[in-house]
TrEMBL record:
EC number: 2.7.1.26, 2.7.7.2
Keywords: ATP-binding, FAD, Flavoprotein, FMN, Kinase, Multifunctional enzyme, Nucleotide-binding, Nucleotidyltransferase, Transferase
The protein's name: Riboflavin biosynthesis protein
InterPro entries, per database record: FAD_synthase, Riboflavin_kinase, Riboflavin_kinase_bac, Riboflavin_kinase_bac/euk, Riboflavin_kinase_dom_sf, Rossmann-like_a/b/a_fold
CDD domains associated with the record: FAD_synthetase_N
Gene3D superfamilies hit by this protein: HUPs, Riboflavin kinase-like
Function: Catalyzes the phosphorylation of riboflavin to FMN followed by the adenylation of FMN to FAD.
Any one GO BP annotation for this protein: riboflavin biosynthetic process
Ranges that cross the membrane: none
A Pfam family: Flavokinase
Family stated for the protein in its record: Belongs to the ribF family.
Amino acid sequence: MQLWDSLASVSASHSVLTLGFFDGVHLGHQALLREVVGYAQQHRCPAVVVTLWPHPRIVLGKEPGGFHLINGLNYKLELLEASGVDGVVVLEFTLELARQSPLEFLQRVVSMPSCPQCIFMGYDHRFGRGGAGDFTVLRQFCGPLGIDTRQGQPLQLDGLEVSSTLVRRAIQQGDTAYAARLMGRNFSFRGTVAHGFQLGQRMGFPTANIEPYEPWQLVPGHGVYEGWCRIRTGSGGERFKAVVNVGTRPTVSSARAVSIEAHLLDFQGDLYGQELEVGFNRKLRPELKFSSVDDLKVQIAKDIECVRTGR
């Protein structure tokens, strides 16, 4: 898959484009991408995704508590490549870009070295200043230029339209099992193992203290999860079942800072400084404050057995 950082540098000729942020690359995104790739194969042209980074809400600072994303950029690019597209344009979202009208933005798109022959867009995607551009604007702009336009249709699951917002809400509420259904895979993120307080080690349950790569990485709501960890450095991507705790460790600490700690089942070795991918299958229980460390140890042993057996 080719990667470009500007529309002017795109070398793909007479391509089919799709516009969108694609956070989470969920089932709705996947359906749209299948249409794009299918069109490209039928017309023997390259399939190209045009996306933005960072997210407009991060740059514009419209979220009081900060806006969090399902995937970092590199992970999203891997998911897009797996969908079968031939290339991705990653446009840096700046305040200057935010000020462009929908027509100014589309003019940039069609001014590529080779004008696209078709542009796909999701049913709810917006572009241009204030999000004023929609599919109707796209179609009216492209029609006189002879550029075909196609609109993806909403995909429903359990009576709800699958969207990045719905996925984020499920993750924030700790319902990672539902998030997995919406995305067709487990929610996971990547980070580096940092030095912690080694409390798990002293209790007999060593844990990896994981710091996400991105400051805006979304993490599940507080709780204890059945999950897995894939070691991305030093061991060829080996994957281990894991008990993952997201929260403030109230039994052993009065601090309010949130940490992500994972106990990898049947792992022996040093993880400090290594890169991990942490996946979440389902929530086992809420994070609790126990009356003693011994009570906490008993519960952790139960959590491990639950993850080991899948019960």
